Amino acid sequence: MKRLDGHCGRVLTMVAALGVLVPASRLLGEEAAPLLLWYDAPAKNWEREALPIGNGRLGAMVFGKVAEERLQFNVDSLWTGDENPSGGYGSMGGYQAFGDLFIRLPGHTDADEYRRELDLAEGVVRISYRYGGVSYRREYFCSHPDQVLVARLTAEKPDSHTGTIELADAHDGTVAAENNRLVSAGALKNGLRYEAQALVLHEGGTLVAEMAGLTFTNCNSLTVLLAAATDYAMDAGRNWRGNPPRERAAGTLNPAAGKSYGALRSAHVKDHRSLFDRVALDVGRTAPEARNQPTDKRLGAYKQGGADPDLEELLFQFGRYLMIGCSRPGSLPANLQGLWNDKNRAPWHSDYHTNSNIQMNYWPAEPANLPECHRPLLALVRSQLPLWRKATRADKEFTRGGKPARGWTVRTSHNITGGMGWKWNKPGNAWHAQHFWEHYAFGGDKTYLRKVAYPVLKEVCQFWEDHLKALPDGRLVAPNGWSPEHGPTGDGCSYHQELIWDAFTNYIEAADALGIDHAYRDKVAAMREMLLVPAVGRWGQLQEWMEDRDKPDDHHRHLSHLVGLHPGRQFSPLTTPKLAKAAEVSLRGRGDGGTGWSKAWKISQWARLLDGDHAYKMLRGTLKSRIARNLYNLHPPFQIDGNFGATAGVCEMLLQSHLRTDDGRYRVHLLPALPSAWKMGRVTGLRARGGFEVDITWEDGRLTEATLRSALGRPLRVRYGEKTAEHRLKAGEAIRLDGDFKRI
Ligand code: FUC
For ligand 1, is residue 337 a contact (CB within 6 Å)? Predict the structure, then answer.
């Protein structure tokens, strides 16, 4: 993919234009830069150095320590808390640390030739070093097909492994060793039970159980399989409890133990690659001298102002890697830290925040070609609805003339058992609903739309139908709202108005796509017409509140009043230039700083304003100031939304498809915000709404070729710069366009 084949003639120009980096000979025919994070020392710090592996449900942070290896592991459903919707954090609880697996090799203290790496494409962490004249290798991965964490230790010489293996429990559970198995088990205060089992298989030497650990002596190699589970079930009707954790852990561990390491590894790599390999990105070539440096050193050089396009690609792909690692069908959605957490009192409870964070986690899922990873969010929201409905009905805030609003909404935080924390985030329902719509907009599955998304969208419309209030002039506003974490409470906050507009629009398009509910569809369309549209204020800004009280020097991290620009579609330079201009003024006012997620969001915001250089400035700013040595995004502390936001931002820079034409065509906009820094490049496998998959190549900052594959046969208007062209492709058909937009 990193080959830029067949453009020999233009390479010199390209290199001259870049003015940096690499001799032309190196650009041609060179192998792709491997997608590796690598380091020449073990991790000391969990948050900033250890490397994540995960299968959606079970994950670990690998330290790569030589004499005392530490794998700090988690299971996504290990939560305290209950169903209480009152907003108290005590009962809402939070996501918990599970435990550690320690592999001790006493004596291995003076290792050299040390290397620790995470291979994003294979989903494997590798450690290698030399000790006592012997080369040692370790590999770690979390397998989705086999639902176990696998650790493998080998050496080039037999009998080289002597040491102990221990399990540590992060709560008050018990740990026991029997034969070649370690078991840790316990229960949280809310009654949730959990269990981890580690099974050690050895070749050569001996293995004995002692107290709470296993001792191995003179083994040639070791394979450790770790399974862990809770008895959580995503089902209110069963009181959120399912099969016992022992049954679940043993149920995955025992079959995995019957497979060879090679079989486990190849099933894992095949599964991982089937998702990861769908998208490839090349935005330029880093000189090998820079590229061959360890990742932390490269990041250091980047922070000093160096150019490193491969590092930008690595950050993009790391977001996709993390998504595969913490959100797979059947798992819980990515929380504030994905699923990686070493604390029982994690920052913000490592929960689900509904006023930007959980949504940002899922912005890359559809465009970056991981739509199945989106499903855990949709599944969790659906599972919570019975409780959220009850809580919404019970609060007099949502009662008008003695009648409670239909439907549901959410507070700022929620857990996995119907409990909610902090203030109401009233349009959180519309924001969650947007994800149900987007999954359809990209994938086009009408059965899913009818059965899953449509009822959610309609119920959100009904909530707002009951809760909206008419101003004296008839315009409709959301009453008593709050622009997240900023300013006073009042009617008609732009954040509310824009998200309601979004829910109404998505509902209307859903009803049209299914050809149903004409009367209600028209009613929602009429309400949308009456919704107050945010005003342009005294300094040209898009007002955050109904009153013109925005301050031009207010650098608050939230960009709530700009949700209609991104991730929504109410404002765009192409359809509403005046409001888009006002959004730009507001965005400029917010400045280029911000916490990890805030900065990452600005990449997408500037991309939606079609300003590639400013989007790139925010991407660069993210990498320079908000990325740890292990590439985790730092709010600070570590918060995974910034990683996902950055990956989504790169997608928005290269391809946009959020606008429809009046006749319903999907507008697919190629390279809408290509920065001048990315002179030459190629992306393959990005997805656009309407069921398109797109590959784009550019040189000298200009499109040279695009391929659009249609899965659904939907009508299409492609745009590049000022040019547009309309095409009707059959389902399964592809078109290739050259730089002049001609079909080839
Ligand atoms: C929102 C943000 C904070 C933080 C928290 C998890 O409340 O305003 O900055 O990201 O979520």
Answer: no
Q: How far is the CA of 485 from the centre of ligand 1 (A)?
A: 8
* From 639, 641, 643, 644, mutation site for ligand 1 pocket: most ligand atoms within 8 A of C-beta: 639
Q: Is the distance from CB of 235 to CB of 242 less than 8 angstroms?
A: yes
Per-residue model confidence (pLDDT) at position 541: 98
> Is any atom of ligand 1 closer than 6 Å to the C-beta of 635?
yes
pLDDT of residue 5: 33
For residue 394 the two structure tokens come to 């019970």
Give the C-alpha distances (Å, rounded to integers) separating 573 from 402, 528, 609. 44, 21, 6
Flag residues of the chain having pLDDT under 70.
1-32
Prediction pTM value: 0.95
pLDDT of 664: 80
Q: Which atom of ligand 1 is nearest to the CA of 484?
A: 8
- The CB of 349 under 6 Å from ligand 1? The reply is no
Q: Which two tokens stand for residue 229?
A: 């589970």
Q: CA–CA separation, 449 vs 514, rounded Å?
A: 8
**Domains detected in the chain:** 43-276 (2.70.98.50), 309-656 (1.50.10.10), 668-738 (2.60.40.1180)
Which atom of ligand 1 lies closest to the CA of 412? Answer: 7
Strands 715-720 and 666-670: parallel
Q: Where are the alpha helices (DSSP H) in 515-640?
A: 518-530, 577-590, 596-608, 612-625
Atom of ligand 1 nearest to the CA of 639: 10
For residue 351, report the distance from its CA to the centre of ligand 1, in Å.
11
- Residues 6 or more apart whose Cβ sits within 8 Å of residue 623: 299, 302, 303, 311, 312, 315
Q: Is the dihedral of CA 388, 390, 396, 398 positive or negative?
A: positive
| Residue 110, pLDDT score | 87
Ligand 1 centroid, distance to 413 Cα (angstroms): 10
CA-to-CA separations, 514 to 146, 443, 517, in angstroms, rounded? 39, 15, 9
- Distance from C-alpha of 297 to C-alpha of 578, rounded to nearest angstrom: 45
For residue range 336-383, list pLDDT tens digits in order: 999 999 999 999 999 999 999 999 999 999 999 999 999 999 999 999
703 alpha carbon to ligand 1 midpoint, in Å? 38
Nearest CA-CA partner of 333 in 369, 383, 407, 368 = 383
The tokens describing 334, both together, are 């990515």
- Measured in Å, residue 89 CA sits from the centre of ligand 1 at 15
Q: Is 352 in the pocket of ligand 1 (CB under 6 A)?
A: no
Closest residue by Cα to atom 6, ligand 1, is 348
pLDDT at 50: 99
Determine how β-strand 68-75 pairs with β-strand 58-62: antiparallel
Task: Give whole-number Cα distances, 1 to 122, 271, 494, 681, in Å.
Answer: 16, 20, 43, 10
353 lines ligand 1 (CB under 6 A): yes
Cβ–ligand 1 distance for 350 under 6 Å, the answer no
Q: Output the average pLDDT for the chain.
A: 94
- Judged by DSSP in three states, 240 sits in coil
Q: Note whether 314 and 35 are within 8 A (CB).
A: yes
3-state secondary structure of 502: helix
Measure the CA–CA gap between 447 and 454, rounded to whole angstroms: 10
Q: What HEC string does 90-133 produce?
A: HHHCCECCCEEEEEECCCCCCCEEEEEEEECCCCEEEEEEEECC
As a whole number of angstroms, the distance between CA 495 and CA 588 comes to: 18
